[in-house]
Amino acid sequence: MNPQSRLRRRLGRIEETAFLFLMRLALISVVMILGWILATLLIKGMPVLSWELISQPPQGGYYLGGKGGILNAILGSLYLAAGGTLLALIAGLPVVFYLTTYLHQKTRRAALIRLALDVLWGIPSIVYGVFGFLIMLSLGLRTSLLAGIITLAFLELPILIRGMDEFIRTTPEELVQSSLAVGATPLETTLKVISRQTLPGLITAVLLAFGRGIGDAASVLFTAGYTDHLPTSLFEPAASLPLAVFFQLGTPFPAVQQRAYASALVLTIIILVLSFISRWLISRFNKYLVR
Amino acid sequence: MNTAAGWAKRPESRTGVRKQRNRIARRLFSISAGFIFLVLFAIVTMLVQRSLPLWQKVSLPDFLTGRVWKPDQGLFGLLPFILGTFWTTGLGIAFALPLSLFSAIYLAEYARPLTRTVIKPVLDILAGIPSVIYGMWGVLVVVPVVQTTVAPLFSRAFPGIGLFQSSNPTGFSILSAGIVLAIMIAPILIAIMYEILLAVPVGLREASMAVGASRWQTIRYVVLPKATSGLIATLILGTSRALGETMAVLMVVGNVAALPRSLFDPAYPIPALIANNYGEMMSIPLYDSALMAAALFLLLIVLSFNILSSLALRRMLQ
């Protein structure tokens, strides 16, 4: 081997080592950033988190450091996300069934619907907020729990449908064909065979959409408003955790800012629990799938 | 005879009912699918309609290139906000690209199965963290670091370059927003880039290795060229996500409506403008119309980016 090609080979090896180092560095920093974010939340939020904070609504002078908690925001967020997810399910399930039952994978119409859903998914939540605000005005509503729920339903709709659609597409073609071959109609195949086969996946999609809804601030800012009262009516404003974090962080009082950290911790715990449940569901039910 | 006819008849009529049920369901489901297009259409139409009053007072070029935003004097110049959006997004993408690309290549080409199973949930969780949390983390961690360390360091290290000069005493800046944005879109970029790289046929890699190329040479001369268009589509998708990001950016960017000159200047992106002013927009004439026009402008850019990247990615991943 001549010295020139030996040199070239050595340079190549150095190049690979250098890039491998950069790649590992990039991946490790991604993991470390997650750790950093969680650690910041824990360190800042944990000392302030108390039973009083999560079991009471704000009392008088709360935003100056007075007594009370963020129960209004916790309940408001749960109602908003649950309502939004329910509405999105009602509007979305038929679309999911249409995509998976009646349109064969590769038809033009299916591709067009999926494209529209992907485009909807990409629309910023602030635009959904504006859209929900305009709908609210045209329905004659004020900022209210209902308006927030409607807005979140629009935001969650594409996430829900595409999530379910992706799971249902993993159904083996043979299973569908066998069901049709013994005389089941496409509708029966979807309702009794596919939905049973993919149930954990469908629930995961619902949890994903719920998680997106509960964490979104920009869309409920216009539509659900904010209040210190516990949500009791669909037509009253409702508080939410993301906005609780945002507003409390914006006050000049350290005591109130610390409650923002605790609120953020509560919100993150809810999101993490949702994520663990869906992970568990998938691994638990994977065993019973027909492959 | 009678019973036999009854036997023959019953399943047939039940089949009839079942088939009819199937047909009705098909009709209903297809109508509901139309709802998707209706939503898309309604969002665009409502914004167009609401922004109409503005055009009678302000021309489109004036709106897009005007430098002064004073709603109470009827001045609606969106340029500072457009620039704020593009600076923060551009910086976010510039930070996220190497981070995501290197991570995705490692995951697709080098990582052991164990590494992949560990990384997957990390990416999922990062992608699921609400943007207020990123914003708060930015306020607590990124902004102070930029204020006390990065800004003074760059000002001293690059004295002649305006881009690196800081006249901003706080850390609320384009740089902070760019860093936070990069961290937010990186998990999405990594996940899609990983899929793109996996979609490159294994046979190509084997052929390249068979003629004596090393693993890195195979990546550089075979895999990456094959995946380039998909990676660009991913980047466009990430850009559209960053363009519309509201709360996290709003919390760390400073919200000052001026033309930014340096990375350490505050800025005021369009989503932040909308989020901060919805309260008073009804009390000043044309203000709501101008905000809707700003939202429309943002929406049209995001929509076109989305359509472009969705079409390209779909072709790439099939």
Structure description:
The complex is a heterodimer of chains A (291) and B (318). By secondary structure, chain A is an all-alpha fold. Chain A folds into two domains: 3-45; 62-288, MetI-like (MetI-like fold, Orthogonal Bundle). Chain A is built from twelve helices and no strands. Chain A has helices at 3-45, 51-55, 71-102, 108-122, 125-138, 145-168, 173-181, 186-197, 199-215, 218-223, 241-249, 254-285. In chain A, helix 3 packs across helix 8 (186-197). In chain B, strand 1 and strand 2 form a beta hairpin. Chain B has a two-stranded antiparallel ribbon. Chain B is mostly helical and 318 residues long. Chain B is built from eleven helices and two strands, in the order ααββααααααααα. Chain B has two domains: 1-56; 81-317, MetI-like fold (Orthogonal Bundle). In chain B, helix 3 (79-110) packs parallel to helix 6, helix 4 (113-128) packs across helix 6 and helix 7 packs antiparallel against helix 8. At the A-B interface, helix 1, helix 3, helix 4, helix 5 and helix 6 of A face helix 1, helix 3, helix 4, helix 5 and helix 6 of B.
